[in-house]
Design goal:
This protein is 78% helix and 0% strand. The chain has helices spanning 3-12, 17-24, 33-48, 53-78, 83-111, 117-124. Helix 2 packs across helix 3 (33-48) and helix 4 (53-78) runs antiparallel to helix 5 (83-111). The protein is extended and about 60 Å long. It starts with a helix and ends with a helix.
C-alpha cells in the first residue's frame, strides 16, 4: 500500500478525528491522541451494536450548549447601540437557535425513528 493509499484510508476511516478533537478540545498536552482514538472506536462499536446512549447524551449536551449560546448572543444583541452590531448578534443568535432546534429534532428522530418505506419493505419480506 502506498503512502497516499494509507493516508486516504486513515482520512476516510476517521483516524484524523482524534487529532482534530485534541486541537479543539482545549485539553492541552494531557490529552493523548491514542486515547481519543480508543474512545472513538469504543463509541463506534457501541453504535454498531445498537447502543445509542452516548450519541443521545452528546445531542442533549449540544442542544443545551447551543441554547445557552443563543441566550448569550441575544443578551449581547440587546445591549448594542449600533444597528450593525445589533444585526450581527441577532443573526448569530438565530443561527444558534436554529442549530439547537435541528439538534433537538435529530435527537427526536433518533429516539423515535419514523416509520417509512423501510418498515413497509421489512413487512413484505
Amino acid at each position: 500500500m502506498s503512502t497516499s493509499q494509507m493516508l486516504a484510508a486513515m482520512a476516510t476511516r476517521g483516524a484524523l478525528a482524534p487529532a482534530n478533537i485534541k486541537q479543539f478540545s482545549s485539553c492541552g498536552d494531557d490529552l493523548q491522541v491514542s486515547d481519543v482514538l480508543t474512545e472513538l472506536q469504543k463509541a463506534g462499536g457501541e453504535v454498531s451494536g445498537g447502543n445509542l446512549g452516548r450519541v443521545e447524551k452528546l445531542l442533549v449536551n449540544q442542544v443545551i450548549t447551543l441554547d445557552t449560546l443563543f441566550h448569550n448572543l441575544l443578551q449581547r444583541a440587546g445591549s448594542q447601540e449600533n444597528m450593525k452590531n445589533l444585526e450581527t448578534f441577532m443573526r448569530l443568535a438565530l443561527k444558534a437557535q436554529a442549530q439547537a432546534r435541528a439538534t433537538a429534532e435529530a435527537l427526536g428522530i433518533l429516539k423515535n425513528p419514523p416509520v417509512g418505506s423501510m418498515g413497509r419493505c421489512n413487512s413484505l419480506a
